[in-house]
Write a structure and sequence with these properties.
- The protein is about 25% helix and about 25% strand.
- The protein is an alpha+beta fold and about 130 residues long.
- Strand 2 and strand 3 form a beta hairpin.
- Helix 1 crosses helix 2.
- It is globular.
- The mean pLDDT is about 95.
């Protein structure tokens, strides 16, 4: 069995902990959960509100996918973590769904949590598959 490849993507935000942006094995690509931080500006304040934070997270995930020659159309599964589940669930869903082609939503789990790194309201990780 081959060893996994560990990817760091120059255009993606600086990690907030010890991880690779993605790990790949046998065509499966596991994207680390992204935070609503800004590429090249790790000290910039997070966007205000769950809608803006969800958009920033999705944009960051797209940067990681782009760096691997992939796109959101290759995503097969996503996990979403929300610190204010009941308050933010509907608003997050509206933004999230707008990133995918109609009828092409990956399998998904959404979990309410007590806190996230850097004080974020939302974090999303993904699994993609190379064609």
């Amino acid at each position: 069995m081959p060893l996994p490849d560990f990817h760091m993507i120059a255009a993606a935000p600086q990690p907030v902990a010890t991880f690779s942006h993605a790990t790949e094995l046998d065509g499966w690509v596991f994207l680390t959960g992204q935070m609503p931080t800004w590429p090249g500006e790790p000290d910039r304040p997070l966007p205000e509100g769950v809608e803006a934070q969800t958009a920033r997270v999705m944009d960051n995930l797209t940067l990681v996918l782009d760096g691997l020659g992939l796109g959101l159309e290759h995503v097969v599964q996503a996990r979403i973590y929300l610190t204010e589940f009941e308050r933010d669930y509907a608003a997050m869903n509206l933004v999230y769904a707008g990133y995918f082609a109609k009828g092409r939503l990956p399998a998904r789990t959404c979990i309410g949590v007590t806190a996230l790194a850097v004080g974020a309201l939302v974090e999303i990780d993904m699994v993609a598959r190379r064609p």
